[in-house]
Design goal:
Length: 630
């Protein structure tokens, strides 16, 4: 089985220019059953949607965003496309779909991630903050980190032996390929486009070490014995103590490079690889299972949870933790000396659900008291040597300036809405996700007084090698609702009616998107097939209204987790916001971001207040409408 999976993966690794606004699955799988790849071959292929269906749905989503004049122009462009080059591109895309397991997946890895030249950090990599742990010193940090690593290894055994259960969405089984890729994968900087490598367990000499970053020093830390048995918690703790003993002197903040613009990082990387010792050290990091960052304590601040959010998302700058990172690694966990922990992940390998599933497993393992018998003797951790030339040192100094500007510009607020959670919308028999999406639409409209392109990521893993489709959350129904909430002449009964209509509209679009009836991936495929065949980009795709409709000033993700963890990411355009939320039964955890340098957007904390107000008002509208109907 593994050899077949590896061949599929090899076809996916090809050296890509779309928005990096790709966040989490909007839908949480509800049950898990079966062996990891037992149904993989029987999953349906990702379809090419009918052209007319996509054009009709595009006009439907454009209607609330533009004037009557602009809408009529868009209708004409759609008709011209349908009677012109559209059918030819559709046919060629359908021909591609016949030849590929998934017509989109190899394109997607390129255009969504590897071709993007902006920094991965803030723009693409999400951060996740775990619940604060009960320790506040080095010894507690090492004990917690040892338990965390043991949890990772426990999870990896399930992946390696393919006993990880298959996820389901309702009754539909989901593609498990992303689980196979999240451990032992890494992005590698390149000029013009990056590369991506994965070291699966069926290949010769699979990874048996992790990378520990401590005090800006990088260590190769074996976590298996010579018989490939995982080390237990006591042995892992001893490995960490050896790291701390060797890493007392601070190293150069090389992790800063991985937050740089990809072209800058690629040039520095190329120079670093001229030294064979340094090249070998870099390859050790790339081949490792995960990266574990052991951080110093944070400075005291009035809002420690948001401070910790910055720590997980970007490391908080060159003077704090950013040099103690390797953002190219698919998974890097962060454990601070002050009880703060979390992770950051690079998006090329996977979306949120596999990462959150790994996270939930590790957090449960930490608190479970589980362990296994001691393995044989482990090889002592090795400090990775990095010989830096004068040119590389100059590049590192430039990286410090660039990164600190990025860090200072990002505004982030981590907060918990405590008044209710998904229990309330469930009591009203409406979708909790669609309810929260409506609150975000209302919060934005209350300040900006206009609808904008709104993105929510929906999983298309019910198809082989499926990644994501866009859920366009702004609709004519959501606009009617938000306008009614600001109109004092409207009754709560009417507002509740419009709210339910907006919720149902969002839920319907979500169901369409995850079942292969979305429009954004189809449009992307049509544009890429035109490019591949040297056909001029159709006028429809050049239309400012078309571009406006997919400029995600509201970029959102629902990331359900068992724990009270919260995920966050940066806005995907200068005058936009990032909204991420974890709906618990009785509370909702939010991470909201904006850019300080933009004079259009609100500070993140003020947008949080608007979201909270919207949630309260929507509850009041629904409750009062129920009472008035009794």
């Amino acid at each position: 089985m593994y050899s077949a999976i590896s061949r599929i993966m090899a076809r996916q690794i090809a050296p890509s220019t779309a928005s990096p606004a790709l966040k989490m699955s909007a839908v949480k799988p509800r049950r898990i059953t079966g062996r990891m790849f037992s149904v993989q071959a029987s999953l349906p292929r990702f379809p090419v949607a009918p052209l007319q269906q996509t054009l009709d749905k595009y006009l439907q989503t454009l209607r609330p965003l533009v004037s009557d004049h602009d809408f009529r122009h868009a209708q004409k462009l759609c008709e011209d496309f349908k009677t012109g080059v559209g059918p030819l591109l559709q046919t060629k895309l359908e021909e591609r779909a016949q030849k590929h397991t998934n017509w989109l997946s190899d394109w997607w890895r390129q255009v969504a991630y590897l071709d993007v030249r902006e920094s991965c950090v803030i723009n693409s990599n999400p951060g996740v903050l775990f619940p604060k742990a009960d320790f506040n010193d080095l010894q507690g940090q090492l004990s917690y980190a040892a338990r965390l690593i043991a949890g990772v290894l426990d999870y990896k055994v399930m992946i390696d032996t393919q006993i990880l259960p298959v996820e389901h969405l309702g009754k539909a089984p989901l593609c498990m390929m992303q689980y196979y890729q999240i451990l032992s994968a890494c992005r590698i900087p390149g000029v013009n486009t990056d590369d991506w490598v994965c070291f699966p367990p069926d290949q010769p000499n699979p990874p048996r070490h992790i990378t520990i970053v401590y005090n800006n020093n990088f260590f190769e830390v074996p976590v298996y014995d010579s018989e490939n048995k995982p080390l237990n918690t006591t042995q892992l703790r001893a490995q960490l103590e050896a790291v701390v003993s060797q890493g007392s002197s601070q190293g150069p903040p090389l992790g800063l490079f991985t937050m740089e613009n990809r072209e800058n990082w690629a040039r520095a990387y190329k120079n670093m690889c001229k030294d064979e010792v340094t090249k070998s050290s870099l390859e050790s990091i790339q081949r490792s299972i995960v990266v574990i960052c052991l951080d110093q304590p944070n400075p005291s601040t009035p809002d420690p949870r948001t401070t910790s959010g910055h720590q997980m998302l970007h490391g908080a700058g060159s003077q704090l933790h950013t040099g103690n990172r390797w953002f190219d690694k698919t998974i890097q966990f962060v454990v601070g000396q002050d009880g703060v922990s979390g992770l950051n992940y690079e998006h090329t390998s996977a979306e949120g659900p596999p990462v959150i599933h790994l996270m939930d497993h590790c957090l449960e393992y930490i608190n479970s008291g589980k362990d296994w018998e001691a393995a044989g003797n482990a090889v002592t951790p090795r400090l990775l040597t990095m010989n830096l030339s004068h040119d590389v040192e100059n590049s590192l100094n430039l990286a410090k300036e660039n990164i600190d500007r990025m860090v200072q510009d990002l505004d982030l607020k981590v907060f918990t809405f405590e008044e209710f959670g998904k229990n309330f919308p469930k009591s009203q028999r409406v979708s909790p996700d669609s309810f929260i999406q409506s609150a975000i639409q209302l919060a934005y409209y209350r300040h900006h007084r206009k609808p904008v392109g709104s993105y929510e990521s929906g999983s298309i893993r019910m198809f082989q090698l499926g990644r994501t489709e866009t859920i366009r959350s702004c609709s004519s129904s959501s606009l009617e609702f938000t306008q009614a909430m600001l109109d004092p002449s409207q009754s709560n009964q009417k507002r509740a009616e419009l709210l339910r209509r907006a919720i149902n509209s969002h839920k319907q679009y979500t169901n369409d998107a995850i079942s292969g009836k979305g429009i954004d991936r189809h449009f992307l495929g049509l544009s890429l097939i035109a490019q591949e065949n040297k056909i001029e980009l159709p006028e429809l795709f050049k239309d400012p209204n078309f571009v406006f409709s997919k400029t995600w000033r509201i970029s959102t993700s629902q990331v359900p987790a068992k724990s009270e963890s919260v995920l966050f990411f940066g806005p995907v355009c200068p005058d936009g916001y990032g909204f991420c939320y974890n709906p618990q039964e009785k509370r909702i955890l939010f991470g909201i971001s904006s850019f300080k340098s933009n004079d259009v957007t609100l500070p993140a904390a003020q947008m949080c207040e608007l979201v909270a107000d919207s949630l309260r008002d929507m509850r009041q509208v629904m409750e009062s409408s129920v009472k008035s109907s009794l």
